[in-house]
């Protein structure tokens, strides 16, 4: 930066909304020690019970043994972005961050917290290994590739055909069929659609339902601005959501459920239908997966713009970001990152964790049949729709989740639209 303003001062000012956040003193514990010559540090969301976490740890350990180079790991979940930013302000961030492209991370490269990697993509021989659409999605408006796209997102709908058979119905492909299926399931004491109405998973389904009435261009503008009332398709989508809700399509008290409880309910046969990303489907036990088929969210019976049931698809999974500290160690990061894109490591992730990867490959998971089904859905079967996370301002995310939780309750379409737009206005 010019005029004596350092990158970290600028980053701190922007993160703090114009008020400089004090640099942490003694924040070394935020990042594992990597001061040994030849070592690197990696801050990752692939941790705990997250699909792929064990595979990643094993891959890193194997790399360390093979190269005799230490790799220090710091693991965080949804709080990784703020932890990384805090450590970056003090100049103690990890060399690599492995985190999703959404919310706060959208501005990291522009602010200088991470470096653009489009030149490294070619220098390190990775361009031809990564799905071109993934590179496009991870490139910002200035033409900079923010990070190396690593995992991706496939968000189908799973149907327990065993429970559907007990209710005497088939997999629904239209909204009218879905309402009839919900009635039949309820008559047998079975919950219809379960979803985390109180968190991000319910938010995603709400926005997916709206996209049944929105062209891609209109969806982009509506989710960027929040002005649902200016788009007839968005209004129709909200009204359709309310119609489905009031018809009993969602399980009782769905506004109190989370992404964890939805999966528990589905896995224990208390609900027959769940929209869940493929990494969650990797956690469905084999006994349950044997009676499940994967498809899309039923098309609107009237007034919709999609030809087939919809599936959210995005290349916006975990990316490999290089920090300002990492920029000083490119010769060490190069072989580590190249190894992560090797065919062997890609296969380990797909076969060992059921993850969808941004590396070009024809490997299909055999141990995770639902993930395999989802990866093989074609445009003759489903219509892909966007994951709006790249369009929604970070400050809107939590307020929007509160709005969608209200939507799963008893709010009218007008109330939902009004509160949705207020969330953007407040941000």
Automatic annotation (TrEMBL):
One Pfam family hit: SBP_bac_1
Domain of life: Bacteria
Gene3D superfamilies listed in its UniProt record: Periplasmic binding protein-like II
PANTHER family: ABC TRANSPORTER SUBSTRATE-BINDING PROTEIN, ARABINOSE-BINDING PROTEIN-RELATED
Protein name per UniProt: Carbohydrate ABC transporter substrate-binding protein, CUT1 family
